[in-house]
Amino acid sequence: xxxxxxxxxxxxxxxxxxxxxxxxxxxxxxxxxxxxxxxxxxxxxxxxxxxxxxxxxxxxxxxxxxxxxxxxxxxxxxxxxxxxxxxxxxxxxxxxxxxxxxxxxxxxxxxxxxxxxxxxxxxxxxxxxxxxxxxxxxxxxxxxxxxxxxxxxxxxxxxxxxxxxxxxxxxxxxxxxxxxxxxxxxxxxxxxxxxxxxxxxxxxxxxxxxxxxxxxxxxxxxxxxxxxxxxxxxxxxxxxxxxxxxxxxxxxxxxxxxxxxxxxxxxxxxxxxxxxxxxxxxxxxxxxxxxxxxxxxxxxxxxxxxxxxxxxxxxxxxxxxxxxxxxxxxxxxxxxxxxxxxxxxxxxxxxxxxxxxxxxxxxxxxxxxxxxxxxxxxxxxxxxxxxxxxxxxxxxxxxxxxxxxxxxxxxxxxxxxxxxxxxxxxxxxxxxxxxxxxxxxxxxxxxxxxxxxxxxxxxxxxxxx
Length: 465
Ligand SMILES: [Zn+2]
Prior knowledge:
The protein is an alpha/beta fold and 465 residues long. The chain has helices at residues 32-48, 64-77, 90-99, 132-143, 159-169, 188-197, 227-235, 263-277, 291-299, 311-321, 345-358, 363-369, 385-402, 441-457; strands at 22-25, 53-58, 81-87, 104-108, 117-124, 127-128, 153-155, 177-181, 201-205, 240-244, 251-254, 260-261, 282-286, 303-307, 325-327, 333-335, 374-375, 379-382, 405-407, 412-416, 419-425, 431-438. Strands 1, 2, 3, 4, 5, 6 and 7 form a 7-stranded mixed beta sheet that branches. Strands 17, 18, 19, 20, 21 and 22 form a 6-stranded antiparallel beta sheet that branches.
């Protein structure tokens, strides 16, 4: 650490303090000095709330060890002790915050982003640290109103206890043949250790942790990143394929025919299983999810709750409602049923193996039995920071004047005879997000026309679907 890095006042590039995390391009918007300042600011805030120790984890990116070291220095200089854990996925850090004697933790991760990105996800008191709290860190650093002192920096091993906890959950009768694509992300070593001890046959793809992501982008919500997994599942006659994003908090699933199951479909399969033990329980999904999911939850005896998009707000809602299971279209899946309530894609994979290994049907049979709807994926299109929320407010006002049936917990989700359409402003990027779902193609075309008309009325070009 240079003396410059430890200077009392610090200004972050304004783009890196985001809604749910801190993220930037290393060497361009994010520097090692930011890691130190963030650690010191975050530790100062939590020390004022009585915290004494924080865990620090890091993913497999090339810049993660250096950022984690500077972060730990910053935390220690605020008088908070640091417990460093091994390289691994974000959920392993969350596991550490629930099982070690710490008050919270920081994960150094760029999630699914390109190799030159990196960032930080913070937890305090077993809840995500997000929104205004992150902006507050920026103000605190700019003023240099840090706590001082010298916390200890030590190491603890959670890799083995974490893998053991995942294994403990496995209870399938029928061993399965599974292809796993880690995308060279941070879950690679965990999944190697896990599958070596699981019954069944396991084919591992891109399991070596490599921050240059040589095979493909570690983002399983993008179909082009699932090509290799789909081919392997079909060629090797697997029961299913499972993929993870770069930090192991989002899952991708492919059925035995090589077809992709989307986040809301995976959720429905798992929600049915959770509801067997938790009849009547509230199950939370975000506004982007299909109506098929909400209807399916109700049909399975659950209470479907539609909530805002964003893993931090979903987690907070789960705690508020004491919900056993929640998820997002983006395939963050949160189990409080038998687990800790954070988004752990490797844990979700074990639950999925249990459902399949204890049931008679295949994944494709599940998929094909779902009510038929046609929908667009999530359409994201650019709109400036200043305009994006104004556009949504304008659309909402026009819809209210028309007396439309609108759910407005996050943007507008409009229900009509054809189905539903959604328009919301992203919290993390300067984009608007649209999605439409109808019973048939003709209905879908009419829904897209409704979205387009609203955007034109606000002076925007419609997106390319
Ligand atoms: Zn992630």
